């Protein structure tokens, strides 16, 4: 609880061809030899994620990727995996070796940055290896026809030349695009009373709360909201004892029970629905849930979990939601389960995607996944919205949000 969750930090991904100096640049930016550096092409084979301080901005997540010019069947898979990082990158750095500018590669990468709405910065590395005259020619962009080349930053990772200037540009881009949206604080006036319903079952972590609960509590404190945390078993007595309650936020698994207890005069929603609003397109996810009744017998449903964890007989994504869908709709469906960053690109085989609350991924990741589903024509929704829909309380659950 003492650190900002990684999913809430800006993600900066470093791209470029092999031996352009991506890992060396990362070490120079961090002031530490954390990334493995070698003159052998292809030293970095998979995206490597590191959370570090970008002084004086604060903590960020750097992602070092494999070379975009990797070759062979395995190399193509590495390139594909590297470019997939753009689905969660808030900012991209493209590193070029000044001795091998390879502008066509940069233009191809720039097209990917544009496609994924990722702001980028080109860094020309190894300027210590050329004379001042040659450096001047490259800066003048003679006969190269590269657009916006004047926005490039020229550095030497080996000599740390230009690193301070690069750091300043990164911070400026991050500050210009910085967003710190509220989870609850913009929904209620100051000094409102919020009750959080946190069921304790076998899946609940011992001696701690899960991330969405912690973040909502902090958001309430940041915005001057009175926050009370109870189990579902004590909810009824809490509502009787509190003089005024403006909003009840429940774990989605307890939606049906909690809705029956909370008077209609009190607003009600869930942690998962709040995070659907925070990190995704709420209306798109609501539309996705409305497609449930139209699914045909045997339809393929993808259950997508952002995090990796052990599963139990009470697991919401693998047990409770599939069982409830089957029971409510009276049809048999085929459920497929994916976890972590393993979001499939072959979405055409699915009729519906049901995503978790996305507390472990950043907004860029969720936006990218929703956009991919939209492009493929596949409806997408999330756990909390599905549970509200199937329990007949959708309108009530989203009333305070729309």
Automatic annotation (TrEMBL):
Is Hydrolase tagged as a keyword?
Answer: no
Q: Name one GO biological process term.
A: tRNA wobble uridine modification
**One Pfam family recorded for the sequence:** HydF_tetramer
**Keyword GTP-binding, does the record have it?**
yes
**Which keywords are on file for this protein?**
GTP-binding, Nucleotide-binding
The Swiss-Prot or TrEMBL record annotates one GO molecular function as: GTP binding
The record's Gene Ontology cellular component field reads:
cytoplasm
Residues in Hydrogen maturase F tetramerization domain copies: 284-400
Show where the G domain sits.
Answer: 11-126
Instruction: Say which domain of life the source belongs to.
Output: Bacteria
Record domain Hydrogen maturase F dimerization: where: 183-280
Cross-referenced NCBIfam families: GTP_HydF, small_GTP
What is the name of the protein in this document?
Answer: Iron-only hydrogenase maturation protein HydF
């Amino acid at each position: 609880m003492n650190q900002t969750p990684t999913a809430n930090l800006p993600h900066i991904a470093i791209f470029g061809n092999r031996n352009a100096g991506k890992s060396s640049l990362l070490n120079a930016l961090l002031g530490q030899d954390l990334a493995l550096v070698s003159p052998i092409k292809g030293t970095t084979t998979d995206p490597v994620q590191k959370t570090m301080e970008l002084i004086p901005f604060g903590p960020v997540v750097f992602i070092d990727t494999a070379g975009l010019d990797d070759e062979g069947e395995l190399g193509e898979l590495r390139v594909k995996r590297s470019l997939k990082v753009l689905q969660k990158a808030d900012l991209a750095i493209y590193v070029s070796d000044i001795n091998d500018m390879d502008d066509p590669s940069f233009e191809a990468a720039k097209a990917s940055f544009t496609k994924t709405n990722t702001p980028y910065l080109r860094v020309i590395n190894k300027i210590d290896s050329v004379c001042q005259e040659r450096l001047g020619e490259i800066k003048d962009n003679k006969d190269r026809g590269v657009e916006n080349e004047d926005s490039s930053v020229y550095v030497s990772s080996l000599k740390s030349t230009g690193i301070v200037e690069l750091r300043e540009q990164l911070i400026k881009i991050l500050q210009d695009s910085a967003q710190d949206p509220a989870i609850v604080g913009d929904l209620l006036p100051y000094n409102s009373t919020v009750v959080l319903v946190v069921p304790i079952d076998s899946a609940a972590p011992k001696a701690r709360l899960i991330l969405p609960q912690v973040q909502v509590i902090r958001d309430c404190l940041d915005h001057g909201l009175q926050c009370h945390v109870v189990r579902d078993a004590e909810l009824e007595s809490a509502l009787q004892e509190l003089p005024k309650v403006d909003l009840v936020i429940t774990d989605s698994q307890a939606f049906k029970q909690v809705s029956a207890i909370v008077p209609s005069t009190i607003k009600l929603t869930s942690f998962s629905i709040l995070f659907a609003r925070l990190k995704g397109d709420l209306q798109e996810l609501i539309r996705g849930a409305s497609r449930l009744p139209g699914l045909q017998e045997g339809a393929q449903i993808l259950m997508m979990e952002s995090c990796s964890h052990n599963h139990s007989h009470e697991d919401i994504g693998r047990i409770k939601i599939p069982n409830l869908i089957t029971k409510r709709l009276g049809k048999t469906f085929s459920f497929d389960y994916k976890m972590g960053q393993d979001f499939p690109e072959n979405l055409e085989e699915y009729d519906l995607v049901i995503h978790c609350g996305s507390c472990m991924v950043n907004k860029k990741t969720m936006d990218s996944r929703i956009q991919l589903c939209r492009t493929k024509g596949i409806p997408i929704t999330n756990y909390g919205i599905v549970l509200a829909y199937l329990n007949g309380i959708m309108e009530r659950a989203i009333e305070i949000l729309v």
